[in-house]
Amino acid sequence: MYEPIRTKSVHTPADHAGDFPHRTREEELDIQLAGHLAALLAVTDELGLGEAGDRIAGQVARLRGTPPVRHAGLSDAPVPALHRRAHALAGRALVVASRADTAVAILSAERMDAHTEALAADARTPVGAH
After folding, report:
1. Nearest 5°: CA angle at 21, between 18 and 27?
2. The pTM is what?
3. Distance from first CA to last CA of the chain, Å, rounded?
């Protein structure tokens, strides 16, 4: 009544599965984490936070095996917006790092706290006093 399936299933392992490199879960998490930290580094450098940027760059270099490219690409975004962006990026890094890297998790949490504090301080500053 039904003809049997004569082709291989998509679920059948490929004959040459070992022909291309595979990454481990840890390698994939390191790549993802390095990307989040590199984005955080760009915003940190734009804010002019040299010491924090150096710490982030050190972690990116450890994860990638090479130092990150740093430049002073300015977006002309308001400082509070940059702090909010940095806070969000640090949060993303924290989520990934919590599964794979304690040192980066701690650094990310510290950066989130620093940007929260900077936003609170900015909110307390009277308008026109910037």
Report:
1. 130
2. 0.79
3. 81
pLDDT of residue 13: 61
SS (HEC) of the chain: CCCCCCCCCCCCCCCCHHHCCCCCHHHHHHHHHHHHHHHHHHHHHHCCCHHHHHHHHHHHHHHHCCCCCCCCCCCCCCHHHHHHHHHHHHHHHHHHHHHHCHHHHHHHHHHHHHHHHHHHHHHHCCCCCC
pLDDT at residue 105 in the model: 96
How far, in Å, CA of 114 to CA of 110, rounded? 6
Per-residue model confidence (pLDDT) at position 130 = 53
